[in-house]
Amino acid sequence: MRELVIVGGGAAGLMAALYAAREGAKVQLLERNEKLGKKIYITGKGRCNLTNTAEPQQFMGNIPRNPRFLYSALNLLDNRGTMELFTRLGLLLKEERGGRVFPASDRASDVTRTLERACKGSGVEVHLNTRVERLLLEGGGVRGIVTGDGRELPADAVIVATGGLSYPSTGSTGDGYRLAEQAGLGVTPTRPSLVGIDTLESWPGALSGLTLKNVRLTAARGKKLLYNEQGELLLTHYGISGPLVLSLSALLPDDCEGQALQLDLKPALDEKTLDERLLRELAALGRKQLASAMDRLMPHSLGLALLELAGLSPTLPAHGVTRECRRELVRRIKGVTLTVRGLRGYEEAVVTRGGVDVRGINPSTMGSKAVAGLYFAGEVLDVDALTGGFNLQIAFSTGALAGKSAVQYVTRDHGGG
Q1: 91, 258, 282, 305: which one has the fewest Cβ atoms less than 10 Å from its Cβ?
Q2: Mind spelling out the 3-state secondary structure of 262-277?
Q3: DSSP secondary-structure letter at 299?
Q4: Which CATH number, 3.10.20.30, 3.40.50.720, 3.40.50.150, 3.50.50.60, labels domain 3-192+347-414?
Q5: 352 forms bridges with which residues in the sheet?
Q6: What phi-psi label fits residue 395: left (phi over 0), alpha (psi between -120 and 50 degrees) or beta?
């Protein structure tokens, strides 16, 4: 019987276990937490956005780092295949805006339970509360692992699917990087990604909790446009968050401190049209205050903040607003400047940017080029994507390929059976 050990019982580890077991391997799945899929439970705000229906080219466009590395993995298990797999396993799915796919129940726990049931039904042996301390390496290959309590567990192949550093409360504490370095693999610098942004400006904190819809967020470095998207943004006690900001955080350079951002609060209107509308609102209000005109354009608290930024009194009579005042207001509405102080930490990050250097991994198998029988899958790899279900699909795809490849390796090199 082919012996396979999988380190990590998250999305990638569970999929690797399922694919390996269905190929006939004896699979032992080791998870350091008290239950499987702990991070899955909190993804998509507890609903689990498990994939996206985007067509291949669009899908790859949502993977800013090392997308070509994923060709073989996605060829084995793409988004359509993932949806079909879960449906066959009895999990009803639904599609929402932006091609996001969720369980019909809106319960992330159903995703984990579906995978766990399938794995156990295929003979996977699960060991909870089991941390892996190091790999057993011999003669250029892996021979098993050593657990945190000193037990040696032999294996013909090992798959490392420990996740990254994001949400450390779920057990993602960088164990996979340590194991990779023990095996001589490179690990690229890591940082939080898909995370909120601290701003130097303090006014967003006064409006904490306010969601801005249909706004445009732009970032540029010199003549290079880094980001320019329209959508939803959340003002927070530390600065900004929400879908637009999370995606931006994945694209900002490492030296992003001091990066200027531009927020267009009325992207559907050009400056001339906005000025004409503002003029109409002011004319209709007569002797009422300027703040009342702003109330017709945006939430009250945001309007007051913009007036303060523009140096205008909210009690200024509407009929007393000059052309210069209107121009300043239009300029502010069309281009609020925010400055990056820094990114929020791993405890709030959806994923980790950086990880096991893919140059040391065979993209056709997810196997180490240097250590025979050693495979990597999921967030531990230096591959990450934008929001929308793409990161979980990467985990499922690389896990499936690692599981299948590991079994093929031990069958070929150890005779199988």
Answers
A1: 258
A2: EEECCCCCCHHHHHHH
A3: -
A4: 3.50.50.60
A5: 192
A6: alpha
Q: At what angle do helices 323-334 and 300-309 cross, to 10 degrees?
A: 110
pLDDT for res 417: 39
Is 250 exposed, middle or buried, given 0-12, 13-18 or 19+ CB atoms closer than 10 A?
buried
Q: What is the mean pLDDT of the chain?
A: 95
Distance CA 198, CA 200 (A): 7
| Total Cβ atoms within 10 A of residue 265 | 21
Residues contacting residue 90 through CB under 8 Å, at least 6 positions apart: 114
Q: What share of the chain is helix, strand, coil (3-state, %, to 5)?
A: 40, 25, 35
pTM assigned to the model: 0.92
φ, ψ for residue 376, nearest 5 deg = -135, 145
Are β-strands 374-376 and 351-356 bridged in parallel, bridged antiparallel, or unpaired? unpaired
Secondary element (H or E) of residue 144: strand 141-147
The beta-carbon contacts of 56-61 under 8 Å, at least 24 apart in sequence, are 59/390, 59/393
Position 258: which residue type?
A: G
CB-count burial class (<10 Å; 0-12, 13-18, 19+) for 307: buried
Residue 236 has pLDDT above 80, yes or no: yes
Q: For residue 415, name the pLDDT band (cuts at 50, 70, 90).
A: low
Token couple for 4: 């396979």
Which sequence spans correspond to the domains of the chain? 3-192+347-414, 196-344
- Lookup result for tokens 């599609």: 95
**Residues 330 and 278: beta-carbon distance below 8 Å:** yes
In this predicted model, what pLDDT tens digit does every residue of 241-286 receive, in sequence order?
999 999 999 999 999 999 999 999 999 999 999 999 999 988 888 7
Convert the pLDDT of each residue in 82-140 to its tens digit. 999 999 999 999 999 999 999 999 999 999 999 999 999 999 999 999 999 999 999 99
Number of H helices, E strands in the chain: 13, 21
pLDDT band at 319 (very low <50, low <70, confident <90, very high): confident
Mean predicted confidence (pLDDT) in 132-158: 96
Instruction: Give the model's pLDDT for residue 171.
Output: 72
- Residue 47 to residue 55: CA distance in whole angstroms: 23
Burial class (CB in 10 A: 0-12, 13-18, 19+), 77: buried
